[in-house]
Amino acid sequence: MLWSGWGDPAKARELPEQVRRLLHDLLGVRAPAVPAAGLESVRMPPAALEPRLLDALAGLVGDGHVLTTHEARVRHARGKSTPDLLRMRAGDGAGAPDAVVLPGGHDEVARVLRLCAAERIAVVPFGGGTSVVGGLTAARDGFAGVISLDLGRMDRLVEVDAESMTAVFEPGVPAPEAERLLAAHGLTLGHFPQSFEYATLGGFAAARSSGQASAGYGRFDDMVTGLTVATPEGDLDLGRAPKSAAGPDLRQLLLGSEGAFGVITSLRLRVRRAPAEKVYEGWRLPGFAAGTAALRALAQDGPLPTVLRLSDETETMIGLARPDRIGGGEAGCLVIAGYEGASVAARREAAAAVLSSHGGVPLGEEPGQGWAHGRFSAPYLRDSLLAAGATVETLETAGFWADLPRLYDAVRLALLGALGSPLVMCHISHVYETGASLYFTVVTAQEDDPVAQWERAKEAANTAIVEAGGTISHHHGVGRDHRAAYAAEIGPLGVAILRAVKDRVDPRGVLNPGALV
């Protein structure tokens, strides 16, 4: 993973000259005056951990599994939000941990947490490093130091139960490797978020992830049937049955907790049989309102495709659903529909009747297959835009169908008010019977302080989401970026309940301090 950007450095590419001209003419984007910093020039505070503590950690996880090199610290300093990347490109590694610790199993994780609690060392769990909500930079005040607890060594498929259709994984398994391991058994998770190529299963659970095929396979929290979690105060082993009426489901308390309540060391996940057939296609709807009505009809009355997405007029015109063809969009609103599994032809025909009844025009398989081919490439485009002098970021929310138009307008107006004349695009990325998510992409010219520029816009958007009745995050999580808005969403009593849980499982507050609560 590129330390100051997304993914494989070999896949990074410069923007075509015509796109650069368009950005300049449309938004006033100019190339940055200062080139991006190199890894070796990133500035970091001196490591604070005493040698005796480093030795103690090495005694728990083994020599060679406690890293203090410049490169290791830089690579674990931040996540992949636009402010994270802007700071790293400027050579600002202020959030770097003092050491990277790689445990080899549950018992080692538990021992590390007990030591860190006793010695007041902050612990930031680290999976694939793909957080986009400031979830990987701990608050340092009051701690003897900070470690990044990298779970990459815990990367095994432990068990496959083909009768119950579950599989047990360690948390550090990267998503592509999980699919490869399951494919050997004719199975799949069906979880394909945009972070798929680099995120880990433990990270999916900790952030309550939702994949692009959630209409067919469900969200990741729907897949989790069991969890093992290590905390400084002991272990939790949750999920004895598929469903239970034995009190509140504590799995739901740990899902989405972002390492603030404990470290996930094992997951039992529901799996599905690998689909025999996959077909993706495109449709043009006359407008966002008509497209939203069509998606609602499919979500409520069926048939529901496995993948279902709707780009608004601006996103369709720009062509953002096809990052490989940016600038080559068309009029109207693009719908991407994908069908996987059994009875594909029948489901596709029935869905076509619904889309046609709302004014949809079929575009054939080429737009759908093109989207599927480039479905994980948008973050590379963001890096190219940052390098060209644009500030570009995404944010997402969700609401009930009746509230969606108001939520859509509120967020757009907030971003326009905060940034002047940005390019604001949106698509519906996930649908449910009762509502849907809205995923916004914003592009504008960088100001002298682009981090402050985006923080201003983010605060305005967060306020608009809360006031319009949406949730502060549908699938990115809370981290530090959404913490204040999350508190407003759940109210003072909700915050007090979470704080009480935190105080019980982590009384010294060493688990990812500053995140979530």
UniProtKB/TrEMBL annotation:
InterPro entries assigned: Alkyl-DHAP_Synthase, FAD-bd_oxidored_4_C, FAD-bd_PCMH, FAD-bd_PCMH-like_sf, FAD-bd_PCMH_sub2, FAD-linked_Oxase-like_C, Oxid_FAD_bind_N
Keyword Flavoprotein included in the entry's annotation: yes
Domain called FAD-binding PCMH-type: residue spans: 93-274
Pfam families (alphabetical): FAD-oxidase_C, FAD_binding_4
UniProt keywords, alphabetically: FAD, Flavoprotein
Domain of life: Bacteria
Record-stated family: Belongs to the FAD-binding oxidoreductase/transferase type 4 family.
Name of the molecule in the record: FAD-binding oxidoreductase
Source species taxonomy: Bacteria, Bacillati, Actinomycetota, Actinomycetes, Streptosporangiales
